[in-house]
Amino acid sequence: MKSYTTAAAALMAAGVVRATSGTFDVLTMNVAGLPSVLQSNDESGDKTTNSELIGTYFAKYGYDIINVQEDFNYHSYIYSTDNHAYRTATSGGAAIGSGLNTLANFDWVDFTRVGWDDCSNDSDYDCLTPKGFTFMRMMVADGVHIDIYNLHADAGTTNADEAARTSNIQQVADYIDTYSTGNAVIVMGDTNSRYTRTADNIAVFTSQNGLTDAFVQLERAGVVPATLTICDNPSLINTCETVDKIFYRGSRVFSLNATLFNYESSKFVQTNGSTLSDHNPITVKFEWINEGLFSQSNYSGGPHGDWFSDLASLPEKPVVSKLVFRGNKRLDSVGVVLSTGTSLTHGGTGGTEASLTLATGEYWTSAKFCTGQYSNRTRNFYVLATTSKGRTVTAGTSTSDCTTFTAPTGWQIVGYMGQDGDEIDQVSLIYAPQY
Asked: What start and end residues bound the annotated signal peptide (predicted)?
């Protein structure tokens, strides 16, 4: 285990209930939930009974985050025997829903379903149900947020299938660049891709998004497969490649590292030893560590507008010299000016400006945000910023739905992440030690 910096240790100071490290595990599994009259998945047994068993195993092994694909017509049977506290609602059976769902021990915000821009019926009739990917921002600990993606890409190997799948993977990669800039990310699901197929572009998650394939890292010593290997089901080895994959990256708020990779097929079997799905379920165990450079608050507001993040723009030891807000009926913009002269501003130009210049040795330490509904969307209506010397500045109009975020002892507020347009739809605060 790494030693922590003094700043990281400050997160555990008296009165602060914020962990600086932790572990969790994930599972991805194609649950073979198409109606048996359409596809048997080459599995024996009754699909209803098999689905109930899958849910039973989810509960028994207690994986922290589970992404499932092909969760179509037997969805309710899986959920009937599972006990995870947080679960997405089904989007419908085959031909209606995407078959993508998440079960977790952690809560999330900003859940979104996205359909593919392209699909192919050339060999596997992928266009007959609205496949795609899902996105959610999951809180695995206080202030520790990870963007979780679940996907099911186009199947088949014809030219049309390959073109559709290439488009699918690129669509997710571009979405990550747009909505997950600066954030920790885990992508897992049925990619229907292999490194050994030259037409597949699965490596784009690494080259474009900076993600690591846990399989390549832990089972291949960082070397992608050059020779096709087909896994048995259940697989008794971890070095063979499947189309089900788990990619990840950390952020400047915390490092994220995969410590275990395993095919879990032998845990998901019927009473006679037969498998429950034609896919090997995959688990990965992760460790996260905040090493004291930055930390983050939870979120205020709703998932609307364009994503922004100051994490990439902040120097290693930021100092805020001025707070700048705009507001009237609602909170139009938020901003800070750093001691270097760099201005970090988000939102629109409406409302009236309210600012506060900080004295030497004065830090922004607390912020109260109030939210409300406007045009059927949750937005931030008000901010009250308080410094270490007790001085305040406000903008916008207060409501009855307010949350106060306070920097940990010895830390300061130095920037923002969230979503905006003409106003501030959603905001989270970035903390750094007081320098």
From this structure: 1-19
